[in-house]
């Protein structure tokens, strides 16, 4: 058969060609099985498939899938290492650095987060999401002044984009503006700037309906200004939005106690114990900055998961 193929110009596959074709089929199967497993939540199997595929050949798409899967399994450092390799291969892909910053944030490695943001800003210095992340990194590094500056720039940029015609851009701009307003408001409140914090709280409340985080910030601002009755009214709204918000019961109880309403304070204390059995209900000073930690712990705990519109991805 091989003789006639050669005679009439047909192609004869060599053993090396057969080996390469089989390797390609195996690679494609591993990649397909890995993606399928990833979408089905079978993360351990997905990681095995992706790692085996990468042993066979370098593939940036597979490496991206691997990083996503590792993030889902909480293996943040290995995920970060995969993103570093992607960044080396595509140094102009801003979204890789954005994801690196996000992973560094989850690892609480604020120096690495800042470095990733700086590299992203070399590509696009006005990206509001990058500015927001850089602010979070700055807070983690104790640089409140730079954090507020970055958040202010992010907010201004977002507000310009919110007036555009592209619906997706408007939606992303609103999400980042909301996150930035909350973070700046909480940061300003911790520094004692209640008026500045109130501006952000008002914006957040007016641009959302019944949002727990916005209402909680507004309640805290009112409490910081000494407006007890107004603060209580907003804490009531927080609890209406989320009846399981321990912080709202804690902080409202503190205000009741300061006003001398011991019965209401005790009711909130009992509610705190019911919702959070590990506490004894003693809430005094729990929202104040912790000695030696500045504002970092309070702000980061409050806003770690804010991404209300699900922004992400590595596409340019």
UniProtKB/TrEMBL annotation:
Record flagged with keyword rRNA-binding: no
Protein name: Predicted O-linked N-acetylglucosamine transferase, SPINDLY family
Keyword list, A-Z: Repeat, TPR repeat, Transferase
SMART domains in the cross-refs: TPR (SM00028)
Keyword Repeat on entry: yes
GO molecular function annotation: transferase activity
Positions of region (Disordered): 275-299
Per-repeat ranges for TPR: 246-279
InterPro entries: TPR-like_helical_dom_sf, TPR_rpt, Ycf3
Domain of life assignment: Bacteria
A Pfam match: TPR_8
Family matches, as SUPFAM superfamilies: TPR-like
UniProt source species: Segatella buccae
């Amino acid at each position: 058969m091989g003789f006639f193929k050669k005679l009439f110009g047909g192609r004869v596959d060599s053993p090396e060609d057969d080996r390469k074709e089989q390797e390609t089929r195996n690679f494609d199967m591993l990649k397909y099985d890995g993606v399928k497993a990833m979408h089905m939540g079978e993360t351990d199997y997905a990681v095995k498939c992706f790692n085996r595929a990468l042993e066979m050949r370098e593939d940036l798409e597979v490496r991206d899938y691997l990083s996503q899967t590792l993030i889902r399994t909480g293996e943040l450092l290995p995920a970060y290492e995969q993103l570093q390799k992607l960044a080396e291969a595509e140094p102009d892909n801003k979204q890789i650095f954005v994801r690196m910053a996000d992973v560094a944030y989850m690892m609480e490695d604020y120096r690495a987060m800042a470095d990733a943001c700086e590299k992203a800003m070399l590509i696009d210095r006005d990206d509001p999401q990058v500015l927001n992340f850089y602010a979070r990194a700055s807070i983690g590094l104790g640089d409140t002044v730079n954090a507020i500056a970055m958040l202010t720039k992010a907010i201004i940029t977002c507000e310009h984009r919110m007036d555009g015609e592209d619906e997706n851009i408007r939606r992303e701009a609103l999400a980042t503006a909301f996150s930035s307003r909350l973070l700046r408001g909480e940061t300003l409140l911790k520094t004692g700037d209640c008026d500045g914090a109130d501006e952000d709280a008002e914006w957040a409340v007016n641009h959302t309906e019944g949002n727990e985080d916005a209402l909680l910030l507004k309640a805290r601002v009112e409490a910081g200004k000494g407006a007890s009755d107004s603060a209580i009214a907003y804490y009531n709204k927080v609890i209406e939005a989320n009846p399981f918000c321990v912080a709202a019961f804690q902080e409202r109880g503190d205000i009741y106690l300061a006003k001398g309403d011991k019965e209401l304070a005790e009711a909130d204390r009992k509610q705190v114990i019911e919702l959070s059995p590990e506490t004894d209900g003693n809430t005094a000073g729990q929202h104040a900055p912790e000695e030696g930690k500045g504002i970092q712990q309070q702000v980061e705990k409050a806003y770690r998961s804010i991404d209300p519109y699900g922004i992400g991805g590595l596409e340019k």
